[in-house]
Model the fold of this input.
Amino acid sequence: MTFDQITIVGLSTIAASYMIKLIGFPEQALKIYHSKNSDNVSGFLFLSSFISYILWTYYGYLKNDWVIMWGQSVGILTSGIVLYLMNKYRRKNASENNTQQKPDDTNANT
Done:
């Protein structure tokens, strides 16, 4: 079996893509989950990734290309989990910050 340049580039692309989807995004999800904080995570990055993976999966469906569909659906799952955790802990942290603020005591000086 010989590998031509297209096969090597294709396999390299698949490997890099799966590293992001199966290592990078889950690692980010675990960091958010353990710290219960997503303030320093780019929502735009994960939202745009999520939309991109949805569009790629749909494109694979239209072309009846199962390799594209399965490969990109993994990205939908992992980026979706990160988006869910970001939303969950941003809301939770925002509500905790609102309850920890001291009430404005405007009548204290009168």
